[in-house]
Amino acid sequence: MDIDFEFTEMIKIHEGTIYKIILSYTNKADAIQDLYQEVVYQLWKSYTTYRGDSKLNTWLYRVVLNTVLSQHRNDSRRKKRKEDYLSIKFDYTYDHELDEKIKKLYKAIYTLNDIDKAIIMLHLESKSHKEISEIIGITITNVGTKISRIKSKLHNKIQKL
Residue 86 gets which letter from DSSP? Predict the structure, then answer.
């Protein structure tokens, strides 16, 4: 099978997941598109070196998260300003209008630190504790503990929204 075709199909299959991860770090339409392009570029660069040591999903999540986190850190360093996360207005939706509960959830997720965002997004994607452990690089036990604490934080933040 042609490598270009394989790569294109992989992107099509995982496009929704890529956007979900991106949306947990930014909500500006132009930034979303820029970040999506950067993610696809980084996936393309590393696609030929994927050795199959881990599941394709695990590798893809790792590349997407590393790209998003790297870009997020770079943006944060450049801006050096704090935003009022609770007053964020979503100006982008993926495929359909987000209902109020999902908007509140994304607003709450947006306030989490980078690692917690990554963990909860993977959890929402129904990844196992083992898969999250492999992607993030922490122990399986630590994943369970963190998910429990993150859920509690999100519950409290959503109640305030």
Answer: G
